[in-house]
Amino acid sequence: MPDWLEAAIRTLTAIVILFFLTKMLGKRQVSQLSVFEYMTGITIGSLAAYVSINLSTPWYLGLVSLVVWVSFSYGMEFAQMKSKRVRAFVEGKATVLIQQGHVLEANMRKERLTTDELLQELRRNGVFRLADAEFALMETSGEINVMTAAEGRPPTRRDFGMHTGMKREPIAVLMDGVVMEEQLASIRLNRGWLDHELAQRSLAAEDVFLAQLDADGELYIDLYRDATES
């Protein structure tokens, strides 16, 4: 049999077998992946490629490895369904990023999440003002869910059906203890204004994790609060 024909047959065989094995693993394997599922996806892809083009070794050895790996992955998923301890060991635990309106910087560092990424995830959840985020949790899948503090906010013009007009988005003017000079200039403010606002609160720039100015001119400040982190 010509090498090209053998490679073609091996590839088609690997595709068919891999399709049915992946179907057996369920939908989670192709949606939100845990660390183990991510590792499984990479490995079975490599094994499928091995079966397809490595003509120097018997093809069935690669298929045996493929079946063993997928079977082990299936067994791990079954064990996770039955045991919370196994699930916690394999997938880890959710991480609190914002608690009672305060950003937990140590937990962000543990998850290697930057301030810009946090703000992006808040916006993805429809929260454009950090002050509106009461609680934020990073799930084991890496997805971030946010609970807003709507109940604690006073009624707004929008609540009464009054037209509010278009407003610009809140702007971060101080991030990770560093003043954002360009951001201040874009809204026609300067470092002197920010220093005055901080001085009124007896704060220095290095004390602030994130400061955000909304369209109403309200400055929301989140301090480094390592003592409250867990």
From TrEMBL:
It is found in: Cell membrane. InterPro entries: DUF421, UPF0702_alpha/beta_dom_sf. The chain crosses the membrane at residues 7-26, 33-53, 59-79. This is DUF421 domain-containing protein. It comes from Paenibacillus xanthanilyticus. Residues 81-213 form the YetF C-terminal domain. Keywords: Cell membrane, Membrane, Transmembrane, Transmembrane helix. Belongs to the UPF0702 family. It is a multi-pass membrane protein.
